[in-house]
Amino acid sequence: DKSSGPLEFAVEDARRLSYPNESFELILEKGTLDAMLSNKEDGVANCVAIVTECARVLTVGGFIVIISHLNAHTPDGVSWLEEVVQTGLLAGGGNDTWEIEVHGNADISTDGDTGIPAGSPGPAVYIIQKKSPPPEVEKKSESATAVTSSAPDTTIPVKFFAY
Fold it and tell me: Would the N or C end of the chain have less CB density within 10 A of its end CB?
């Protein structure tokens, strides 16, 4: 159906996208971050750069969906969530705020019947929403009223869902 517009395909460096700010309502990331982490020297920095760019090109109200083998129901997954995802979102989102949902198996005692290696809960799906910036705060004095933006929030609420 051409009424929704033609599809466009482009080859881009995910660390330096050519798109303007707030260009996309949905970004689906499946496997790129996991693959980039295989580079022990630059992997984390590359992943932060990718998430930063995703945050920059996402519209307010839009979603980033990340599917990763780093499940935040484990200590390694929590470290990745903090070091890569949250750092990138805060760097690329300006004064915007974020909400993160982590969906996945929390049980790390899986057996051979599940196809998930023992000691691993398997992959997780991260649903990240970009929210409006916090409202401006008015400071009143006797002689004038000043409007200042509140400082950007450096905490991102995370909700965990286990299945």
Answer: N
C-alpha 91/C-alpha 88 separation (Å) is 5
Give the dihedral of Cα atoms 7, 101, 94, 77; nearest 10 deg: -100
Single-letter amino acid, residue 63: F
User: Whole-prediction pTM value?
Assistant: 0.80
Amino acid at 129: Q
Q: State the chain's mean pLDDT as an integer.
A: 85
The C-alpha atoms of residue 21 and residue 28 are separated, in whole angstroms, by 17
The H-or-E segment that residue 125 falls in is strand 124-131
Residue 149: the pLDDT is 47
Question: Residue type at 153?
Answer: D
Q: Rounded to whole angstroms, how far apart are CA atoms 126 and 128?
A: 6
Rounded to whole angstroms, how far apart are CA atoms 89 and 130? 9
pLDDT at 118 exceeding the cut of 90: no
